[in-house]
Each structure stands twice: as C-alpha cells, then as structure tokens.
Amino acid sequence: MTTSAFRLAILSGVLALWEIAARAGNPLLYVPPSAVLPSLVNLVALRSYPDLLEHVLLTAREIAVAYALAVAGGVGVGCALGGHRVLGRAYAPMLAALYAVPAVVWYPSLMLFFGLDAASKIAFGFLLGFFPITLAVLAGTRQVNPHLVTVARSFGASPLAVFAKVLLPGMLFTLVGGLRTGLALAVIGVIVGEVLGAKAGMGTLINHAYGLFRTADYVALVLVTLVLIVTSDVLASLVERRARRWTT
Amino acid sequence: MTVADAELIRIDGVAKRYRTASGVVDALGDVSLAVPEGQFCTIIGPSGCGKSTLLGMLAGLVGPDGGRVLIEGQPVTGPDPRRVATVFQDPGLFPWRTALENVEFGLELQGADRGRRRAVATELLGPLGLRGFAEKYPRELSGGMKQRVAIGRALAIDTKILLMDEPFGALDEQTRMLMGEWLLDIWRRTNKTVIFVTHSLHEALALSTRVVVMTARPGRIKSVLELPLGYPRAMESPELVTLRAKLWSEIRDESLRAMSES
Amino acid sequence: MSEARRIRLLQVASVLAVLAVWEASARAGWVDPLFVAPPSVVARAFGAIGGAALIALGDTLAKTAVAYTLAVGLGVPAGLMIGSVRAVHDVVHPFVVALYGIPKILVLPWIVLLLGFGTAPAVAYGAIHGLFPILVLVIGGVRDVDPALITVARSYGARPWQIYWKVILPASVPSVLASLRLGIVFCLLGVLIVEMFAGVRGMGHVLNALANGFQAAQLFAATALVSAASIGFVLALDALNEKLSHWRG
Lengths: 248, 262, 249
Description:
The complex is a heterotrimer. Chain A is mostly helical.
C-alpha cells in the first residue's frame, strides 16, 4: 500500500519536474507532458503523419519476419549444438565469444549487403534475436536431467519421443525465457536499424521528427512505438506464464 | 550450589504463532523446560512441531510471543555468541571462505586478533578430522566434512551452550552414526551443555542424557525421558531396546497426527 | 587424440573452411565483391585503414572508458543499496526493470538534440546503456544471497554492518563481476550507436562511412578490429572473474 503510494509519488514527481523544467527550457529541446498530449492526439488521428499506419505495419512486419527467422535458426542451431557433445563443445564457446561483441558493429556490413530497405532491418533483428534463443536452447538441453532420458529409453522411447516427451518439457522453462528475450532483442534490432538509416518504418519517422525539431511529435512517436514494444512483450509474457504453469 | 544455580537454561511457558499466507499457524504452545549444566538434551518430535522454533528462541533468533527464555538467569533478547553457539542443518558455510576461515568466523566477529584466531581454528581442525583440509573451500568438502566445519565454527567461540538443529539430518546413515560418536567424544571432553534437535530415535538414544518428546503442532512437551546410562551405549541391550520401543510409541501417535494434519 | 584436441582441431578447421568458401565464392563471382570482399582482400585492407582506424578505435575506447566508469561507479553502489534495503527495493525495482526494458534507441535522438554531436552524447548514451544491466544484475545478486548465511552470521552476533560487509558483499561478488562483464559490452554498444547516428569521429562513424562508401574490404577489417577489442575486454574480465570467484564450483 505505502509502497505503491511511494511509486506513484515518484512517478508524479518526475512528471511534474519534467513539466516545470520543460516550460522553462528551450521548447525545441524540452517538451512538457502537457504538450505531448495534443501531439499524441494529432498523431493517432493521422493528422501529423497521415501514413503512420503504413509505417507501424512495416515495422511490425519486419519484427515478425526477423523473429520468425531468429526462432527457427536459434532453435535449430541450439538443438544441433546441444544434441551433439562434440559440436556443442566446439561451437558453443565461439558463439559465446561472438555474443561478447556489441552487435551494432555488424549493422554497417548488413546495410551494405542488404541495402537501406527492410532486408537489412530484418537481418539485424534476426541477428540480435538469434543469440539469446540459441543460448537458451543450448542451456535448456544441458539442464535436462540425463537420468530422465535413460528412464524414457528404458521404457522403449524412440529418439523423437525422447525429444517430445522428455527434452522439450524439461527445457521448456528456459526455452520460453530465451524466446521472450529473443523477441525483445529482435524488436530492438529492427528499430535500431530503422533509426540508423531507413526509408520507412517507425524508426524513420522518429528520425524525421527529430531532424525537423518537431520534438513533441518525436515524443508522441516514441510513445506509440513503446506501445508496440510493450504489446509484443505482454504477448510473450502471457505465453511464458502459460508455459510456466505447464512445467510446474 | 542451589538447584536454581545449576539450571543453565530455563524456558518458561513460551508460545509462538506464525502468520503465513494460508493463515495463522500455532507453532509452539506453552512449553516449559529447565536444563542443568552439562546435559546432552535431545528434543525429538514430528515434523513441524516447533523444535526448530524452540531452538531459534534459545539462539536469540526468534522472539517468543509469550513466556520467557532465560540463560544463566538472564532473559534472551538476541543472539549471544559469548554463551550460545548454534549449528544448523544446512551447514551454512560461507563459500568464499576456506574451511579454516569458516572456523575463524565467530572469533573474527568478536574481534579476536588474527594470530589467536588462526591458532584456535588450526587446533580445532585436528579433532574435527580436517587436518590437511584447512585451505579447502566448502565446495571441495563432502557433506560430513562441511558439517564438521560448521561444528568447528561453533566450538571455536567456546560457549557453554551448543545448540544443534538436526545437524546430521542431511547425511547418510553411516556418516551420521560416525558423526554422532565423534560429537559424543567432543561433548564429553568439553563438558558443554548440548541441546540437540533430531528426527532420529537412534541418535536420541545413543547420545542423550535426556530426551524431550514434543507433540504435533502446536508443539508442547509430551514427555521427558531420562537416560542415566554410560557411553558408548550398546544399542542392542535389553534396556535400550525397551527404551526405544517406549520412545517410538510416544512419537508414533504424534507423527501420525502430524501426517494426517499436513 | 584427446577430445580436447579434436575439438580445437574442429574449431580451427571450421574457421578455415568458412574463410575458404568465402574466398572462393568471392573469386568465382557468386557474390558481388562490391558487397562482400574476400578474406584475402580484407587482410590487405587492414594495412589500408591501419593508422586511422586505430586512432578511431582509441577515440571510441576512450569514450567507452568514461561511460563505463560512470555506469559502474553509479550502478554497482546503487545496485548494492537497492538490493539490500528492502523498502527501497520494493519502491524502486519496478522502475529499474521498466527502464531496463525500454529500448534506449528511442531516447537517442533526444540525447543528441540535447548534447549535440561529439563526445558528450556518446559518453552519456554509453553510460545509460551500461547502467541498467549493471543495476539489474547487482540487485538480483544481492537479493539472491542465501538467507541461511545471514542467519548464521546473526547467530554469531554479527551487527547489521558486519552482515553487510562479511556476508552480503562477498556473496555478491560473482554477480557484480558478471555485471562488469555485461556492462562493458553495453557501454561500447551505446558509444558505437551514437557514433553511427551522429558521430564525427570514432569507430562507429568510420564503420558507417565505409558502408556508405561501399568499401566492403575496409569495412570488414574495421568491424573485425572492434570485435577483437570487445572480445579482448570480455576475456580479460572473465580472467578476473575466475581469479576472484575461485571459491565457486
């Protein structure tokens, strides 16, 4: 009770401070919350950016494709490395080392190769999403109690049955966590790609508003993008909760 | 010396209830007990009978809701490492400290200088059977060794009272029996007062001078069994076999009750 | 042959195979050399970009160092505090999680608007990027300290500051080290993004310029250089971790 009161107080304090500071500051740099609301209304009513929906849909489509590829690639590679001891021991450390590189260094190369259109954003979103999913699958296959595999095989389970009835449920928890992180990162990858250079998409609009010093529109666009991001994460967390209930 | 002086520990009508998510739990209801100096007093009873709570009160980790706990005539208000040392079922060794450094822990808190700490701890490692393991980290020790380090940590601060909360509960039966023999040896040489919580009838009968049987929740004292026998005890002697049967019949009812309630 | 050697051999062979296929496909004209330069050309490109790239890398690393110092200096103490004071944790933690989850790229334009082009936005953005993962990891580490150890310390009469100093701090060392490792990658990431977005110097700017100029070989060489630097830092922190957490299994 008091905890939520404190949280509310902090939140309103920050908003109030922002409002006061922004009114005193340069309107090109600071936008008070009270000024964001009209911009947001203009944006959602398709007045400031009439083609907003196209951009939202493009970004959403890029995210969907990037994520689908990341899931397919991550689960495939993860299972391959987790299933073969030698492959795993050879390539898992190399993957981990690549994970230690800030992924954005690959983006200029992707842009060069795939151009400024959706493909480079999809590629970058895929790259960011791929690693956590692969590593989660790898960790998942390793955390399944090998004794359970022995038990299943003693009951005559085929390799496929071992996978479906022992490995998958056993690693589901870790897998779903990795899938959620992967989605968050695929989203970030696509948006970072759009901000760093694109012809369309939410990132491009944000860049456009910023370039023209339309700061209130910029904030409104950021809020709309956040809604997109939070929605995707809420969906993922619902799936995660489902899976969690199943496993425990 | 009067009788009251010989009483090292006095527990006077203590009670404890816990508020949990699923309601109020009466853990302990009106327990009174006096323990004279030098005893090996075992508390035995079904799961959840508040044995550990009682021990926690003596250790100053849990405050009673009613009644009072006196040690040497003074009420317990908090942990008192000058008079009481506690060994838990989970050895609770600090994983970043070596065996030796773990044994030193209590002395370190009391501000003993490094040389004395080292000397006391090193001297203890011998009888603990841990000579040569001083520089090992807990992860490199077996379960029995870990528990001996934890006991060493308690012995190092050289208190009159040693509280032990199922110290061997996580060990296999053979290790358990050997640890019991070893503990008995330590106790007889140091003349400490031991309060020992266990689930094991064997441990209770082999080690104690007195066994306190507790009821199912809310825990009360059901009966007290005095064991004025020598050591080592021949567990197959007619006397002990009879005592075992008697003890079991006392505990069996309570365990059954605890099982049907939980 | 031991398994360890077989694995090492497999690793080396795979890298060589990838390089060979890459080289062959570039030479055979299966991929446009304008976009994908063969390894042999990339190797020569190291010479071409040499000095300038090293200066740019130094510039980037200097900014990263400042950002990292800020993120660690702020994040580790704050994380220890938030993690160990229950009331503060309950109030603040949701905010930390929310701020950690929000993609920082969304505030990047505003930071550049505020701080202009150059060093300041890179340092600020790098620090913000590093701060939240550090906070989250350190808070988690402190919260995960085994309560049994705290009970033991209490039973030996430890005062609150002694519990903090002798139990909570040493028990948090592994998560603090993990946060240092993650933090440096995030700080470098933030600095590079700013340099790409609005940089006039630094490796991010160089990478972007090379990509826009279709200089694939130089771009790959420069990418390799930054990657090697980052992997180097992480390996160094891993070694430190190994040394300081030797008590862990």
